Amino acid sequence: MTDKAPFALGWEEWAALPELGLPALKVKVDTGARTSALHAFDIEPFGKADAPKVRFNIHPVPGREDITISCSADVVDRREVTSSNGETELRYVIASRIEMGDRTWPIEITLTNRINMAYRMLLGRQAIGEDMIVQPSGSFFQPKLDDAVYFSTAIRETGPARALRIAVLSREPDNYSTRRLVEEGEGRGHVVEVIDTTRCYMAINAMAPEIYYDGTRLPRYDAVIPRIGASVTSYGTAVIRQFETIGTYCVNGSEGIAKSRDKLRAHQELARHRIGMPTTAFAASPKDTDNLIALAGQAPLIVKLLESTQGRGVVLAETKKAAQSVISAFRGLKANFLVQHFVKEAAGVDIRCVVIDGKVVAAIKRSSSGGDFRSNLHLGGTATPVRISKEERETAVRSAKAFGLRMAGVDLLRAEDGPKVLEVNSSPGFEGAETTTGKNLAGALFDMIEKRVRPTPARKGRRMGQGKARA
Fold it and tell me: How far apart are the C-alpha atoms of 400 and 418, rounded to whole Å?
């Protein structure tokens, strides 16, 4: 029986770090160096103190700074490393598997900026196994890898899942929906941080717009999930606009949230997209009360405050006289309101469709309690699973798209002439839909986020390398 032939390495080889999404790197093998090093910039630690992570960017192809790959990994250590020129640097240390030829093995890698080096990775002697022989006079004993993948869309499809840093904008960290988002995200290995919207403040300038929180500049987030209450819509949308300005992926944008929260504007948006809704009327002058009622139809009518939420500020006027009285009272309070046709055949029942990424992922039927015409679960309504029609599904999807919302709760009434949209909610609660249908809505949302923010090469036009690269 003969011993297994040693694994030969030259002073330069091709290697892959698949766990980091790096399928091809030209590596310098250096037995004079103790530790391995990988080129990294924009190095940022994140995560919990007992489970730290680090994310960083890399230019995998020397001389092509226009191509950037984003990576993340668990931190295994921080060490002082002295480079060949005698400089000492405190570096993050990560663990990953390296592939060369038909061999795969685990190694530890330190992160440092090697932008001026000819090789994006240096393989130190700690990473070289006892059965490996390094022949300094030769190179490329192992097969060449094709780094052309970085120039194609294939890198996006084959890249591994990476840990994301996600902010949930919410003033209610113990709210069911907020807790589910944190639970689902952390279960997938992401870092999810709950940020109180009202404690954010902004530095607005052309060169470096930033967001601060309790005296500290907020880090770069991969994505933001807005859970903004109606009472802070104006300030909340301003914060989201700031995130949009700095290029952060926002599940719902500021414009869509603002449109959905302004009920008059929301109904005008639905009308513009020819989406069915109850006939609605709005006026400012008290002289127009009778005409306003006539425009909405005959009693009974719904009189609804523009700022109403969760069924509050919504009144059913069963007669014309009652409608006149309610309108007079609201005008006396200098409140803005709508008058709307009451869909009798709905009989206190509406359909809540949760739309995520252009698909209805859950639908429930909400029924009013105790004869109340409002079916909101916050007011004691009950929920049951429901099968919706193709027309109802298409209406829900079109409504979310009309507002530019990637996540929305669309409330429908079943009228004789087809579905009527009551409201498009930009921060739908998960509890009623998840507990009623058993579906994982938070999971569907994270599926969308992971798909949208997966690392992909960032190309900004080819730039020539500056100066001669060193090894």
Answer: 18
